[in-house]
TrEMBL record:
Signal peptide span: 1-27
Pfam families: DUF3280
Native source organism of the sequence: Aurantimonas endophytica
Protein name per UniProt: DUF2380 domain-containing protein
Region (Disordered): 167-187
Length: 187
């Protein structure tokens, strides 16, 4: 009789263990969220006499590429593309409805976009926004600022933004850790 009770206790322990572990195992095997990072807009009001258009275009591309690469390192995210990215679309060069339609058709869960502004020789800033494509709702909207007008400054700003995005956006139907933006999206 005691061995029967021991068997029941062991079986009950196994069931409890499965109930505890199974939800975590299910979440770990779920598909990563698909995130697309489109080009960022750029403006320069520094008033510097030298034309730095080419350098700034390269730094802006580096910012986007770094942001995308850093987000791609997250196990719960995978990077994706949408058709307009081949022609360098930004949120200001494409109709919001078209951008949303392309994102949905490509199966993108989150769309990252924004702009960078050079205010002076040493100070830059901008805005980084993440849109939940299914709900057309902002889930992340941050103003950033950084010192420097060189590759290192743009890379640092992109890495900081990626960490903030990864920590904040909702994934797998879960609420974000902090600051979910209740505003409607790009429409």
């Amino acid at each position: 009789m005691q061995s029967s009770n021991q068997l029941r206790a062991a079986l009950a322990s196994a069931v409890v263990l499965v109930l505890i572990v199974l939800p975590g195992a299910t979440a770990a095997t779920s598909e990563p969220e698909r995130v697309a990072v489109i080009d960022f807009d750029y403006s320069d009001s520094s008033g510097e006499p030298e034309d730095q258009t080419a350098e700034h275009a390269a730094r802006l591309a580096l910012f986007r590429q770094t942001l995308e690469a850093e987000l791609g390192k997250e196990t719960s995210l995978t990077t994706a593309t949408i058709p307009c990215m081949a022609s360098g679309c930004t949120v200001s060069t494409m109709r919001p409805d078209d951008l949303l339609e392309e994102s949905r058709a490509a199966g993108v869960d989150f769309l990252v976009f924004g702009g960078v502004h050079k205010m002076s020789t040493l100070v830059g800033g901008g805005r980084v926004v993440v849109l939940d494509v299914a709900d057309d709702r902002f889930v992340f909207d941050r103003v950033i600022s950084f010192r420097g007008d060189d590759d290192e400054a743009f890379v640092r700003a992109a890495r900081f933004s990626a960490r903030d995005i990864a920590r904040t956006i909702p994934r797998g139907g879960q609420a974000p850790e902090e600051h979910q933006e209740p505003r409607r999206g790009i429409r």
